[in-house]
Amino acid sequence: MLFPPGEAAGVIDERTRTAATRFARDHGCRFLFEGQSSKSTFLKLPGRWHELIGNLCTDLGRETPGTEDFRINIDHKISEAEARASQSEAIPFGETPEQRKREFQEALRKILREGQDRDSSNKKVWTEALHLLDNPRVRDPS
After folding, report:
1. Sheet containing 9-13: which strands, arranged edge to edge?
2. Taking CA 31 as the corner, what is the angle to CA 70 and CA 99, rounded to the nearest 5 degrees?
């Protein structure tokens, strides 16, 4: 079994890569932190968020903890991605922008939690992004 019971994340190693790649493609999974070790993490996410989350994580990974605008930059990047998610196509028909935003945020939280556990080089970035997502009152209201 690739996913532990009740989980949406799993780890694979090189010996099972072909089967895991096929599984990921067939089940809407995405590889995460590819190439950083002999094992890769993959997550099951709604397919429509793969590219948006991948781009956001790349942008967030460029942030430097301790810089003057660290929190502001992370919040701004997350807000831009949330806006794009809200404005995306409704699936299913009648889905509201707020529903799309919430679904995107939950998928992003999964990625960021895995990042905290597996990507120590950006742990402070992932932690700050999660803090902002989980505490709307500390976010920039603009």
Report:
1. 9-13, 39-44, 29-32
2. 65
Given a contact cutoff of 8 angstroms between Cβ atoms, the answer to whether 54 and 104 are in contact is no
Q: CB neighbours of 133 closer than 8 A, spacing ≥ 6?
A: 78, 105, 108, 109, 112
Per the domain annotation, does 3 fall within a domain?
no
Token reading at 42? 């993959």
Q: In this predicted model, what pLDDT tens digit does every residue of 93-129 receive, in sequence order?
A: 888 999 999 999 999 998 898 888 876 788 999 999 9
Residue the block writes with tokens 């991605």: 81
Tell me the pTM.
0.71
Q: Are residues 89 and 109 in the same domain?
A: yes
Task: Residue 28: give the domain boundaries.
Answer: 9-44
